[in-house]
Design goal:
heterodimer; A: 138 residues; mainly alpha; B: 288 residues; alpha+beta; Thrombin, subunit H; 3 domains; six-stranded antiparallel β-barrel; six-stranded antiparallel beta barrel; 28% strand; globular; disordered C terminus
């Protein structure tokens, strides 16, 4: 949101913070726990000017679910993992639209679904890129 | 045996921590929705994000700077002459305005009416847009450090833009009049009919669903703020009427659409309105 994207892209842009947090909490769950997710999401809320704690609520849930199925996630194949990420983000989109609906009575589900789709499309490249980065710095 | 036990308590504390954070989030959301206690928290945290905002803005600023440094000489000359032409037009308008405002003062003295306050404004610059289907917000470069407060009126040179909705330390979010969740109490300049103007989520259109069937309105009518509700000062130009329909649902109302007067699609600089207490005192003196 902070970057000067054109308006049509703003509506469909991937949920970058969630992608980073998901990758981070799968790769090194010791470093990226619930508090990290919470802190970054609160910062996101301040930057967006959105309801305080909205992103925090859904992001903490994502990290919690990941930590529950962490061992299985590490074992799954690349494409299966992408599917799992899609499912996690879908869940997250439902949570956030529910919050929007409760707080201000607007229906934002379709909007969130766009960004879920683009996030899933971008995830394989995103993961590939970060894996390469990780290998380089090892 | 021991290992198992400690494992169990570890998962338990983990679940507790999860629940704790979720409850914190819910409490924050409820506080924020009531719009009172969360503002100081928000503005303190925004101090942390300030460096990030500056870093992201930097390339944009550099681009603007280089662009203006390299822009064509001819183009500048053209722009200059355009601006001069604009200025002379505005000066002519101003001249007429002076006469009219003088007349206005005299008439008000005759009527012994309260003096209309001149608006105190300061300029602020746009730093970011947050415009999507469901929300029309902009971010301006002044915040609680500059004494900006929630619900402060925001204008541009052509009309009303909206009001301040969230205040951070160094910037604040402004909700535009075209946002789906925004409403302005307005009146028709020509006839004085009062109604409410709602945002539609479309930048070029505002809706007026509650005009009485008997009201005298026509396309092109100017809408000004009525000052009802106490958020916006009275008499600011908001929009001009563009379409009139019969309401489908309720036959006692007619429905209309209006086009915002402010140049919402191309905002760069906005004006913040200050309510000055000194002015109201002096005006009371004038009436006595």
């Amino acid at each position: 949101m902070l970057l000067p994207w054109p308006i049509w892209f703003r509506n469909i842009q991937p949920y970058w913070l969630a992608l980073v947090i998901i990758y981070w909490s799968i790769e090194s769950p010791k470093q990226c726990g619930l508090f990290t997710a919470f802190t970054y999401s609160i910062l996101l809320d301040v930057l967006y000017g959105s309801l305080f704690g909205k992103h925090g609520f859904s992001m903490v849930a994502i990290v919690f679910i990941i930590s529950k199925i962490h061992k299985r996630l590490k074992m799954t194949s690349f494409w299966q993992l992408s599917l799992m990420v899609g499912a996690l983000l879908l869940n997250d989109a439902f949570i956030r639209s529910a919050i929007d609906w409760l707080a201000s009575n607007e229906n934002t589900l379709v909007l969130h679904l766009y960004s879920v789709i683009t996030s899933v499309i971008i995830w394989p490249w995103f993961k590939y890129f970060l894996d390469r980065l990780k290998l380089k710095h090892r | 045996m021991w290992g198992k036990k400690s494992d169990k308590s570890a998962t338990q504390t983990y679940v507790l921590r999860f629940l704790f954070l979720e409850i914190v989030c819910v409490v924050l959301m409820i506080l924020d929705n009531s719009n009172k206690i969360a503002t100081p928290i928000r503005s303190t945290i925004s101090a942390l994000t300030l460096p990030l905002v500056k870093v992201v803005e930097w390339p944009q600023r550099a681009y603007n700077f280089i662009n203006s440094a390299l822009s064509d000489h001819l183009q500048l000359l053209q722009e200059n002459s355009d601006l001069k032409q604009n200025l002379s037009q505005v000066q002519i308008d101003l001249l007429q305005m002076e006469v009219i405002s003088q007349q206005n003062v005299e008439l008000r003295q005759l009527l012994n009416a309260k003096q209309q306050l001149p608006l105190q404004t300061t300029a602020a610059f746009l730093v970011n847009l947050n415009i999507g289907k469901n929300q029309h917000r902009i971010v301006i470069n002044q915040g609680s450090n500059q004494n900006i407060s929630i619900n402060q009126t925001v204008l541009d040179l052509y009309g009303l833009i909206g009001q301040v909705s969230k205040v951070n330390l160094e910037n604040s979010h402004v909700i535009l009049i075209t946002d789906q969740n925004h409403a302005v109490p307005v009146e028709f300049l020509r006839t004085g009919v009062r109604t409410v103007l709602y945002g539609t989520g479309d930048m070029n259109s505002l809706s007026l669903p509650e005009i009485p069937q008997s009201a005298d309105i026509k396309v092109g009518d100017t809408l000004i703020t009525s000052g009802f509700g106490g958020v916006f000062p009275r008499g600011l130009k908001v929009a001009s009427l563009s379409e009139i329909h019969d309401s489908q649902g309720d036959r006692s109302f007619q429905q209309a659409y209006a086009k915002p007067s402010a140049n919402l699609n191309n905002l760069k600089q906005v004006l913040l309105v200050w309510e000055d207490s000194n002015h109201s005192e002096s005006s009371e003196d004038a009436t006595q």
